[in-house]
Amino acid sequence: MNILQRVGDYFKDVSVNKLLMIITTLFVLFYNTSFFTHVVEVYPLNMKNTGFVASLTVFVWSIIVILFLPFCSRYTIKPFLIVFILISSLTAYFMDSYNVVIDDGMIINALDTDVSESLDLFSLKLVIYFLLLGLLPSYYIYRVNIVTGSLGQEIKNKLIMLVVAVLALVAVVMLFSKFYASFIREHKPLRYYSNPVYYIYSAGKVMSAKLKDKDTVIMPTGRDAHDLEKDGIRELVILVVGETARADRFSLNNNYRQTNPLLEKQNVLSLRNVYSCGTSTAESLPCMFSILDKEDYSIRKAAKRENLLDVLKHAGVNVLWRDNNSSSKGIADRVDYESYRRADVNPVCDQECRDEGMLVGLQAYIDSKLNGDILIVLHQMGNHGPAYYKRYPKAFEKYKPTCKTNQLEDCRVEEINNAYDNAILYTDYFLSKVIAFLKKNTGFKTTMFYISDHGESLGENGLYLHGMPYFMAPDAQIHVPAVFWFGDNNPLKELKLEVLRDVAYSHDNIFHTVLGLLEVETEVYDKKKDIFNTELGVNP
Hints:
The structure is a single chain. The protein is 42% helix and 11% strand. The protein has 540 residues and is an alpha/beta fold. It folds into two domains: 3-212, no CATH class; 233-536, Alkaline Phosphatase, subunit A (3-Layer(aba) Sandwich), CATH 3.40.720. It is elongated and about 90 Å long. The model has no long low-confidence stretch (mean pLDDT 91).
């Protein structure tokens, strides 16, 4: 009998424990490239660190065995392992390609992603990962013959396997205790790249929160809100929620290449020191409209409370949300909502529907509201990645060459930056169109307020996209642009607002600033958090 035949026989008929050992070994060797890459960055391979790095293979193997063992029996092991193999092949692809972390925020983002956004992530490389790391091992699991003994023997074998895994785990930790002390206490982010351990933990957090919030009762907020009507002129505010825009890519903020040629011709106020609440839309968007400050905020807490739009509705403000992104993430559930992702609604579509289409028919809405102030929220597609080249019409391809793929790691840095900046150029154009629209509504006190939900990594230090845990996120993912424009009837236009340009602000200021712009009085309004509170040093 030759060696190949012996190997074939070894893998042909297997026990539950043996199959679990085989698949767990595959997880360690082929699905954790990103994990070990980051480990070696912190613990370079040398005489001092090599033993510890090697021990991590045993450490990860043992953890996966301990996690999976309770769910593996003769009848459950095949479907159980196939599910995790398929999911882990995809998580390996995204971690290896974009250096992202699959945490609870990323999982919520994935659950909220629509078909169009999913297609932007599709690539040949993803197919290869799914084929080689997903379907191929799944087919082996499906075809392999499971050999089992009596119930008593199976329980005994399971206990032996558990003991072996625990002893192996304890042994490597004891042998390299000094290293594991720093690994666990000082280098916590390294664990975020372990596949499938960390995404299992994160999925558990998401499921637990959803179960707890199944019958959530929405807590009322600002039910006492009312319009002050200071001068009898109604307010019209358009709040543009940007997508994935970085503050440093707005030429309004620095000497960067001219990405805001049209806004620079307008009398706008660009705030240069604004930071987001989170690093993903699912986290930041609800936070932007929540009364909760960042230190008190969680997606779960925000979902239990009425938000800014609810407070404005209590005050009699007419509120409309128009969306050219995936959704409002629940923010606009209780106000008028219109999606502009479809060509039958949005008349400005080519390879995808454009943000400027949200302005079509907007005047008719305003004209229909004979009483009360008006807030219109326009939720952009903006710079949604990784397919930045799709985010703007061909006419805006000023900077060339551009990255024409969603595989950002296959493009040069210059090409990625060019595609991203062209999308910023289109946002500049869109915001200039919003301003032109507001200028026509001379009977109102008009304001445009633009602010992005989060930023984006474009390959700096090997990072792409966004969604990193906030405490370890680079500035590129949390430093966002914020731009204001005021119409002729708005008294804020006469104030010396330049003093605010470099003041530190965050998404925490949005709730109270919008209430101030619309002259809404309520006990939940905090004037100290209103950017334009004249008592805080903004003088005429």
